[in-house]
Amino acid sequence: MERHRTGLRGELLIDEPLAGYTTWRVGGPARRLYRPADAEDLARFLAGLDPDEPLLWLGLGSNLLVRDGGFPGTVLALQGALDDIWLDGPEVVRVEAGVSCAKAARFAAREGLCGIEFLAGIPGTLGGALAMNAGAFGGEIWKQVQKVLTVDRCGAMRERRPRDYEIGYREVRGPRGEWFLAAWLALQPGDTDAARRRIRSLLVKRNASQPIGQRSCGSVFRNPPGDHAAR
Ligand SMILES: Cc1cc2nc3c(=O)[nH]c(=O)nc-3n(C[C@H](O)[C@H](O)[C@H](O)COP(=O)(O)OP(=O)(O)OC[C@H]3O[C@@H](n4cnc5c(N)ncnc54)[C@H](O)[C@@H]3O)c2cc1C
């Protein structure tokens, strides 16, 4: 382990095996892995990188298969970093990209807000969910997005609106060379007990129909129109 020496506050790891960072539990080493202290620290780290440095953004690694040869560049690991979440208006929650989907769902329920209960059983981060329009039980993350904060490889941050993206089924296309730092989710006023009940019932359904706890990246099938691939 090595601490970066240029005023950065995050943690830089060299030749870090990635198997422990993915739900498949496989994958060789990253040449470098950086876990930022916060968004500003991450922007500063990016600005100091060689412009040709290959980058891999990593949330909870629940939708990522890393080859045995590892990654010949820098992994930006947001799990355990960028993990703030707060109310930013009466019905708007600002969620950083490293916040787990489960934490976001629980936070909204506690605040009496509805619309993201479906996130409770998705074992990823908000950043990973935004990258692929994660969804379950009829909900999809981008249906709730008011705006996002992105960063590019020079460290420049921008706010973007859903209209800046092509959003499809488990697919999101947006401005090249930008990654997600946070999102503002617009939710509906509701009731904490009802939201918690819905979370519990969705988790029961999920546990009954999926091999939770085994090494996987979840479903690898697309839902047919109007139906579910999971049985
Ligand atoms: C048991 C199990 C059940 C699952 N159930 C569901 C489900 O019901 N619905 C569903 O949609 N998915 C499901 N998944 C898949 C997975 O959890 C989701 O795709 C999740 O959104 C991935 O988030 P992550 O943080 O783990 O992303 P990672 O696996 O770390 O990364 C996935 C992709 O997103 C990119 N990425 C990560 N963070 C960022 C960022 N900040 N900015 C830009 N790009 C980024 C990565 O580079 C990579 O390309 C399941 C997976 C498992 C293992």
Explain the overall architecture.
The protein is of the alpha+beta class and 231 residues long. The chain has two domains: 11-77, Uridine Diphospho-n-acetylenolpyruvylglucosamine Reductase, domain 2, CATH 3.30.43; 85-207, Uridine Diphospho-n-acetylenolpyruvylglucosamine Reductase, domain 3. Helix content is 19%, strand content 29%. It has helices at residues 39-47, 101-110, 126-132, 192-209, and strands at residues 11-17, 29-35, 55-58, 71-77, 85-87, 92-96, 113-114, 135-136, 139-140, 145-152, 157-160, 166-168, 171-173, 178-186, 188-189. The strands form five sheets. It has a five-stranded antiparallel sheet. Strands 1-2-4-3 form a four-stranded mixed sheet, with no helix packed on it. Strands 7-15 form a two-stranded antiparallel sheet. Strand 12 (166-168) and strand 13 form a beta hairpin. Helix 2 (101-110) runs antiparallel to helix 4. It starts with 10 loop residues before the first strand and ends in a 22-residue tail after the last helix.
Give keywords.
Uridine Diphospho-n-acetylenolpyruvylglucosamine Reductase, domain 2, binds flavin-adenine dinucleotide, single chain, 2 domains, four-stranded mixed beta sheet, 231 residues, globular, Uridine Diphospho-n-acetylenolpyruvylglucosamine Reductase, domain 3, alpha+beta, five-stranded antiparallel beta sheet, 15 strands
